[in-house]
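User: For my dataset I need records formatted as: sequence, then structure tokens, nothing else. Please produce one.
Assistant:
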Amino acid sequence: MTRFSTTKNTILALLTSISIGLLMIGCETQKPQTEKLTSESDVDSLMSQAQEFENLGSINRALVSWNTALSLAFEQDNRSPAIKIASKIEDLLRTNNNTKMELSTRTQAVIMLARLSFKLENPATALEQLSLIETSDIEKINTNLLAEWIFQKTRGLLTLSKFAEATNLLESYEAAAPQSQKTSDMIWLILSRLSETQLELAANASDTYDSRGWLELARRVRAENYSLRRQLDAVARWRQTWAQHPAASILPSEIARLASTWKNRPRFIGVILPLKTPVGNAIKQGFLSAYYDELRISRDVPKIKFYDVDTSSEISSIYKEAVGEGVDLVIGPLDKTQVTDLSRLKNLPIQTLALNYVDRNDLSPELMVSRVISGAKFYQFGLSPEDEVKEIVSLASNAGHRTAAIITPNGPDYKRLQELFEKSWLGTGGQVVSKTNYQQETDYSSLVKEFLKIQESESRARALIEIIPRNNMMHIPRRRKDIDFIFLISNPAQARQIKPTLAFYYAENIAVYALPSIYNGFDNPEANLDLNGIVFVDAPWMIYDQPRNKQVLDQSLPEDQGILQRLRALGADAFSLYPQLDLLDSGNPHAIKGSTGELKIDDSGQIHRTLTPAVFRQGLADILIGN
């Protein structure tokens, strides 16, 4: 058998296995790149912009705007405008000369159309749309787009059991890119589109040596992506086990990049923290727990020096001191004002991982479009409540809820989170039907009673009794019926009063979603029985029984409550990120599995978290499986 046919059959066997995962649990593919979305962007304005470009005859710019509008509608799960936009894009592609549109823009468009058709369970339509890219243009597509196009088209063919056509598709790719390295990279790019669950399903279905080897390599690298050193060790062990596999001699470029990044990692780290405060000390504890955990498997750990600051410290002078002492990576500061001041320095000579975020209004022009300040990369990472709110919105939307009510404490910070939730929820097409705020010490009975409009029901009963007097009339008040779920911000003590009060006033069946503040990290089933049924999101460090770095801390330090535990997780992640900063890429479809959440980066260098969904059952925080 020729190398050509062997490679082709390997990829076909691999994708056939993958198709089983796609059919069983759906597809989680990388989104094609579109225009960068700003906070002011919305679907309607993008559609208007696209139509204006189209009217002016600027077809390529119109298509870019339509693509961005469809991407946003898709992200918000806003089906009605998505279908309308898709129709406009398809008309534009079919009625205009291809010379008016860049190939990359056209390819992004057909991939977006196909993804929507798959979501609508129309694989035949998806294949028709993917065929809008002509055969003569396929070999001109850049590698990333080509991988996505092949993945989507193969998905459609396999879904419809068109195995012969899938084979022909792979033959055409092999003819266009016969080099072994390109083939290796193509397979790896296709595998990178899959979730861990899909990889596992595909591995179980695979029945050839080459395809099983590829899937095992992907699973091992993905499983250790929290530690670059562990990833490299996993690859080395895989090469020993799968010595005859094609990838053992020609690794994908993405894996080879891991080794070069490790070779060029920082060797001296300066950590700037308020060490005399519980907050700064908690981050230091988490940082050192990850350091000693890494030391157990390798002596190749960086030199560390801690620099103490307080809110009155001049951050620029401390930063310059660290640079002068030979530090080649700064982690910190934590204070938001100091992070903003640091981002405004004209010259950052070394990589910097700040432990807070610069407000969008305070971003420098450089950071608005890039994470680079005067040649050095500036990253921002912290426990952003914005990430937590967006995660709750996603959970509630995926659960099918449409009408929300909001209960939050009084105060400017809570007001900002309330407004963020409301804006995000409206963006999904949902409604907010009620909002209420409470003081830290309050009568929850009156608050909930008014919130659920119980008093209106009681007033109606009194009016009825006045009209039809009855001494033995019994009235059961009714709550309002227009609330699907409640978004709650509270601490555990407050929630232990609010949730039973909701139940007392006939709202025990209304779903409640809460931010991490509802959980203090301690297992206390007797006290937390009243929290049963509340869904929340939190750092894996708080939810899972034995995160690796947490075990190191638990052996020497007592547990801290809530926020201090989460700050320990932040410190652990800060250490684990240090050698991987150059690998962070906003186009990478997979996140780093951190102690604070799954970590991904945006174009401005801000690292965001996807948290672990959990629910209280029998007074204990339990991982929420499914939604």
